[in-house]
Specification:
This protein is mainly α. The protein contains 2 helices and no strands.
Length: 61
């Protein structure tokens, strides 16, 4: 098990909780929903383009 990776991810997740808590008090729920929707859309388009045009033959990465 890679403890360095595990502790790094855990630390970032905990930091994200605190940052998200502070931001949630400053940004309206409507804006968060809209922003998250755009984020998901952009990431979906990125993944589709990456898989269609830049994936290695045979599906291996």
């Amino acid at each position: 098990m890679d403890w360095t990776l595990l502790l790094t991810v855990t630390g970032l997740a905990i930091a994200g909780i605190f940052i998200g808590n502070v931001l949630s008090k400053k940004v309206s729920a409507s804006s968060l929903k809209k922003g998250f929707g755009w984020f998901v859309l952009v990431m979906g388009i990125y993944i589709i383009i990456k898989e269609l045009f830049f994936a290695s033959p045979g599906g291996g990465h």
